[in-house]
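<purpose> Linking amino acid order to shape
<body> The protein record starts here
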Amino acid sequence: PSHALSSEELQAASQRDYTLAIGSLGQSSQWQSAGALLQSAREVEVKPDIITYNAAITALQRGQVASRLALGLLNDIVASKLQPTEPTWGATILACGDTLADGEQHSGSNNTLWERCAAGGW
C-alpha cells in the first residue's frame, strides 16, 4: 500500500530539496541562481529554514558579491523569527568581507555592523 505524505512531510522534503539545490549552486559560484531559487521557494510557500538561509549566504560569499545581499538575508532570517547560528554569522561575516571591517553603517544605526555581529545582536 502506498503512503501519502502529510503536508509537514512534503514541506520538509521540499525544504530539503531547495536547500540542497541552493547549496549546489553556491558551490558552483552561481549565487544569482541560488538567490532566485530561494525566492522561488518563498513563492511556492516553502518556508526556508536556517540551513537554507546559511546555504544562500554561503553562495553569496563564494560569488564575492555585495555585502548588502548577505545582510538582507540576515534581516530575512530575523524577520522569519529564526535564530541565526554560528555558521550564519560566520558566512555573513565572510560574505561581507572588508565592508564589515571598514565599519559600514547599517540602517542609520550608530553601531557598526562589525560591532553588532561581534556582540551577537542584530
